[in-house]
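Minutes, project check-in
Item: structure for the 374-residue chain
Input as provided by the requester:
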Amino acid sequence: MAFVGNFEKVLGLLKNIYDNNRFLYEFLYKKGIDILNINSYDDFLKVPLLRKSDLSKMQIELPPFAGFVYSKPVKIFQSPGPINNVKLEDYEQYRFYKALQSAGFNSDDIVVNSFGYTVSPAGDMFDEACRYLNIPVFPLGPTPSEKAAEIVDTFSATAFIGTKTFLIKTAELCKKKTLRKAYLIAEKMSEDDRKKIKDLFGIDAFQGYGTAEVGLIATEGLGFSHMKIDTEKIFIEHLDPNNCNPTDLEDYGEAVVTFIDHRLPFIRLATGDLVSYEGSFLTGVYGRVDSSVKVKGVFIHYWDFENFCNENDMKCKMKIEHSDKNDIINIEISRGVDNFEGKFKKRFGLTVNNVSIVSNLDKNEVSDLRNWKN
């Protein structure tokens, strides 16, 4: 088996698309796929993958949502790429309340949410999850760790939401040591990291996996061996990144997601994430199958990186490494560019650690030198 989830739900989704979303039906029909003729998983494999680079291109050609979304949005966002995101429904579209509940968050907690509340949806995903569970939340957003620690101490916060790196930086500066639990996404947490966080700070840390398009995909939780997939809303395929054919769940493969909601076009959405499974549980995200990278919780998609290089008339090699606490961005450029660091930060929201000029660069390249598989 090369998928996790209920394929009968996929068949029901396709019927709902035919009945309720003619634009999406006709889009697939023009690609040679009549979804009414899909009766098995083998039939479903004929549906072309939807890559995020293609989604971004389609949205640019027909803004803002490539014509797929016809329901009135609750909120709209934009993720790196750029990819325009639409939220059509509170709680049940993102579903991160399930993740927090699984990790033991409850109404007795006070949460500090360190994800951003503007432009991209991460902050909103967790803010509404806390609201669903009746948990008071401080909307911290991107803030220096010194200020974050001050807020934790001021409100005696018991729970933290954010990335592993920012949690550690913040916890080191807290004086009152009231944090007892954390929910972390957008950055890999190893078992050594989890043990360190528990031993140094007394914090039980859980991690999850999701995207801006479909919200929660899988989550750790109390009593879970690994990350449990939300099969109520997610059908996830496991494909060989070399040929896009189904591969054994125990192997490394690309996560390809179908979201069980006929209002949104995410059928066979190729995440670009390299994963593996143990039984029906996701064991982790081990890097990328393409040249895109996630750095400090922020995606730098290769096509956007290449556009940035072309706009500045240069060739560029970006190398991502990791120290004990931080991701490190080292960049080589083929010529001097005025205020390169400022332009890079404005485009991607990240600070470059080192820049050097190497005149013989002949192509743009992204190298992720972090060891994800340990």
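Outcome recorded: Residues 32 and 306 are 31 Å apart (CA to CA).
No further action items on this chain.
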